[in-house]
Amino acid sequence: MKYLKESLKVIIYIFLYSLTFYICGALFKLFYINKTYVYVISILAGILIYLFNRIIMPLLNHFTLPLTGLTFGLFYFVNNAIILKLVELVLNQNVRFSNLVNLLIISVVITIITFIIEELFVKPFLKVINYE
User: Fold this and answer.
1) By C-alpha distance, which of 101, 122, 124 is closest to 50?
2) What does the longest C-alpha to C-alpha distance in the chain come to?
3) pLDDT tens digits in sequence order for the chain, 132 residues long
């Protein structure tokens, strides 16, 4: 049962990241997503963001902790921008950010949308799942 709950949690977070990536791509024209496979690319981006957040983000946070402290947490958005740049590199021609400013803006927007959806829907749902 424990593995089923963990698998469900992974799927929910991948869906959350895919949804926020798709929303940002649809609302803002600050970056390019290949329109032919927009849903597939959003799902792949969600998977990559989840994996990079689990593997690379702890290392980034560890090494940039002094900068994050000096900027009162604002450097965290730069870490998210680095993760998005890695997603762009992996997805090659299907996702492109035009410049660094757009990348930082999308990083802030994705972080805010993810936080709101996570606090309103994901955490209460996971709390219900864990107490059954």
Assistant:
1) 122
2) 47
3) 778 888 989 999 999 999 999 999 888 888 889 889 999 999 999 999 999 999 999 999 999 999 999 999 999 999 999 999 999 999 988 999 888 999 999 999 999 999 999 999 999 988 887 765
3-state secondary structure 112-131: HHHHHHHHHHHHHHHHHHHC
For residues 43 and 16, what is the distance between their CA atoms, to the nearest angstrom? 10
Q: Residue 80: is it exposed, middle or buried by C-beta count within 10 angstroms (0-12/13-18/19+)?
A: buried
Cα 129 to Cα 14, 19, 118, 122, 124: the distances in Å are 17, 21, 15, 10, 9
Can you list the alpha helix ranges (DSSP code H) found in the chain?
A: 2-27, 38-55, 57-63, 65-70, 76-91, 100-117, 123-130
Give the C-alpha separation, 89 to 75, whole Å: 21
pTM of the entire predicted model: 0.91
Residue pair 38/25 in contact by the 8 Å Cβ criterion: yes
